[in-house]
Write a structure and sequence with these properties.
This protein has four helices and no strands. It is an all-alpha fold and 147 residues long. The protein has one domain. The chain is elongated, with a radius of gyration of 18 Å.
């Protein structure tokens, strides 16, 4: 098999599309975190719960998790089409793997949250923070890959 498997010019456009898609997903995660923090603050203050925000947070979480995993798979596919070497950009790859693992863990934990005093809320919160930090690192690593 010869590499690259697709035209280099097309590959450049696909890399920028991948970067744009994942940047959008990262921004959406920060918005999603804002919703989660609003819910958490209301719970901690023992005030009225913002049910519309809760509904948006519950609906958007699984979709964002799927989009994050899709972004990883698209990046992995681009590297395989370009060089065939999974570890061509090891830091970017391992950070992406960590994001995917955190997304899966967060999704699983979110399904276990039942009631206002669920012990899964705090781990869900910390995993969400980890995802945000990893996305920041991933964006900078991705810029390094593009340049």
């Amino acid at each position: 098999m010869r590499y690259p498997l697709i035209d280099q010019q097309l590959l450049i456009y696909l890399r920028f599309a991948h970067a744009g898609f994942n940047s959008f997903v990262a921004i959406m995660f920060f918005h999603h975190a804002h919703l989660g923090l609003a819910i958490r603050r209301a719970r901690k203050a023992h005030g009225p719960l913002p049910f519309a925000v809760i509904k948006r947070h519950r609906r958007g979480g699984p979709l964002l998790a799927a989009l994050g995993i899709l972004g990883f798979c698209i990046g992995l596919t681009l590297v395989m089409l370009d060089s065939g070497k999974v570890l061509q950009f090891p830091y970017h790859f391992f950070t992406g793997c960590a994001i995917v693992l955190c997304l899966i863990a967060t999704f699983v934990l979110s399904r276990k949250i039942k009631g206002p005093d669920s012990p899964y809320r705090t781990p869900h919160f910390y995993l969400g923070l980890a995802i945000l930090c990893l996305y920041i690192a991933e964006v900078f690593l991705g810029i390094g890959v593009l340049l």
